[in-house]
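User: two proteins, same treatment. go.

Assistant:
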Amino acid sequence: NMAAQFNIGDIVWAKLSSFPPWPRKIVRPKKDVKKPKGKKPVFFVFFYGTEDHAWVKAENLKPFEEYKDQMIKSNKGKRFLQAVEAVEKVLRKGGGAKRGRPPKHSASPKSGAHRDADDIDHEEVVPSSKPVQKTYSREPLLGKTVSPSTSVGVKRPPESLGAEASIILKRPREDNESDLYNFDESEHETESDIVTSKDDITPTCLKIGFLGLGIMGSGMVRNLIKTGHNVMVWNRTPMKCRDFVQAGASMGSSVTEVVAACDITFGCVSDPNAVRDLVFGTSGVLQSIRPGKAYVEMSTIDVETVQDVSESIEARGGRFLEAPVIGTRKPAEDGMLVIVAGGDRSLFDDCESCFLAMGKKAFYLGEVGSGTRMKLVANMVLGSVMAGYAEGMSLAERAGLDLQTVLDVFKEGPLNCAAVRSKGEAILHSRFEPSFPLKHQQKDMRLALALGDELKQSLPVAAAANEMFKRAISLGNGDNDMSSVYRATAL
């Protein structure tokens, strides 16, 4: 019996689907923590290094000491080694066990103080007085793990874990229930949940192609190269490939050459017409698709186009995944994009190291079209907010308010967020270098409105915002940052 090998308090190696094996401690969840259902036993484990928790199937656990040398040889990442050192510290202090429950600590932490992993009372691991958050996706919540909100070296008291941990589990634990819980293997994780250090990413052994080195593609490719992926690039303007070749990528002379040479090829171009040219054009993606090849479309396009691409790829025996991204230039450069995917689940899994390199979170939403719809909704909201923000700044200026003071006030209230700060500074100083070109934002507004028409959903606010973006383009701001929509109001 695999489950009988482990007990509360054991230090183990645990493997989640999107990550390498990691040192963890088996702990007892709080009574109000909900649990997954199913047939296979799982344990609730504490993550050393990230200080979060997740359910892990017993078959994905291995004894720490027995496999330590093997695991360390296969992972030299800085954060991984810090986690191993944290475990060694626990073992030296006698806070870990090979079998049995660890001793309880009688001393409570001082108010506001943080505790090391070995100081956690395992009856208090996930206390929560907060309401359970709802996570909306096309798949059930079973199998989801906790997303950390701490960086390397930052300690977090368990009191802050309750709301997050409650997302992943299905019902409250009863007093008389076992510490082992069942997990239904048929249910998939719908997201790649934990933001791991880029240093800890183990790159796939598959060869990766990347088509399109624009504002977004450039940042994504740099992060693939930095994390050790074997990458071949192509761009319509070959000169843009030079820096990436110097950084370690190879260069394809055509789209078909890249697809033919690579196991998985990513595409990221400007609009639906560019995608159709890339895939269906002479020497396009489709010419080299055959069984064993895979294509991932990361452009923001309409549902009809993405479905046409999917059907054509699959008709030739290839696998297809849509994976548009939420974020602009800076998140792309920092590897902090949000990826919303739909299509072939096995391809989503094969892309895990790539998504970890490019983003902070990757969601699997289900069938082809789901990711595109999610991206259009997100960008429609962003554009509507940006248009309202521009109008507000214009009104403040017309009312004689100092715009720097306006921004300072915004930063101290509920409007304080990265987008408001960065776009506000751009408006204040009339610096509109493109982080996300206005013409692309207007394109996304147009596609979202078309989706609304198709679904007979009224979108009056988005429609009005779209008119502002169109006006800004007519004033010559199409290639400027989306924040230059302000110029359509300051007349």
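Protein 2:
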Amino acid sequence: VGNVTATEDVPPNFVLILADDMGYGDLSYTGHPTILTPNLDALAMSGVRFTSMYAGANICSASRAAMLTGRYAIRNGVYTSFSWPVDNSFRVFYPYSTGSLMHSENTVAQLLHQADYANGLVGKWHLGHYNNSLPLDFGFDYWFGLPYSQDEGCPPGYGVPCDPHGAIFTPTPLYANETIIQQPVNLETLVPRMTDRATTFIDTAVNNSQPFFLYLAYDEVHIPLFASPEFEGTSRRGLYGDAASEMDASIGRVVAHLEAKGLLDNTYIIFSSDNGAWSGLGTQGGFNGPFRGEKGSTFEGGHRVPGFIRGPNIQPGRIHQGVASHMDFFNTILDLAGVPIPDDRIYDGESLVPILVDGDSAEHRCYFFYRDSSLHAVRCGSYKMHYITRCGFCLDPPTKHDPPLLYNLDHDPSEVWGIDPEDPVYQAVKIEMDHAVTLHEANLVKGSPELDGQSPFVQPCCNKVTDCRCGPY
């Protein structure tokens, strides 16, 4: 991938690529010894890499809600009001969930319509499916993909016979716009079909003389792991590596299509993962590099993810070490597209354009670590303070810390060597952290807890007569 130059007087295009449960250390360019991601490596080196990129939350639904709205999930309603231990059953949107991303929210896709952008989602949604809550209800013109994670089928897992009378969930469906076209989805053919749908969406936008926003949300490397026959058994990392390689190859084909169409030089490509790796799954899960914790926790391993942006006027090969987050993608895309952000609510993201184009360091800012409605930690600059800690997916209760735990992440990214509360540095930083939390909470208006609602009667089903089974397969 070579250098890019701006195209005068032509609105830029955007391709936002999101992996699922991919850890910070799961790419070649971040140091994994056996997972090969040559296309992502080349893209990363041609743009700005972020070493302190934070997902909008530590789990799928809340993270995607934050990214698409530029606001913490506590504001846009993608959280549960239940406390431990009941909250473990309400962490994401399930097939029987009745809630969704709040319809009063502005998604980046909805706002891009002001500039006549074509908006497409190819891949996973996971922000609700019941009562007008699919992507076309939130600003997307086209959607091809799954409404939630592939393990939310009957029974959880792939390739296992599904008893329609004893299953928890209906089979995982595949949608085209608002129609189920396959149930259960055939995962072995999913990625090639996603690649085809992505390139077709691009061609349609070009034929209609529209700039485009393509949100390419892969299901890799979430469990159950899968790969097409072309990639199965090709990676030394096993099926996890096969899945990562297939995603990388698909991204390479989309980028090659952009280049063949003469679009690459005017397209911003953003890549990240929705949260940290689910490392507790052993070899079925990923690698969070040096970071403690996993998906679902508020340690770094739950939130800190790989991330880069490349595109017009971005000098290649740069690294930004300051705090950034997925919520910044919202502001950045709208800034580059020339679309104003409404001033009727608080947005938590910031435009990264000064960093991308001007090389601004912008080192000192704060990021707040939530688990559902509870604020667990805050990072400001180099320091991170934990008020509450809790494991990602065990049943242990949360632990409140008084005094809070404090780490210097520049010196101790693994959050092992806490700073002594008697240390003057600790005392000075705590004052700053407490003040940041006070300001944040003073302006916090919580959305309605959309993850609370559940009903067995709202599960997607293409045809009840066939026990929710529709082809072709």
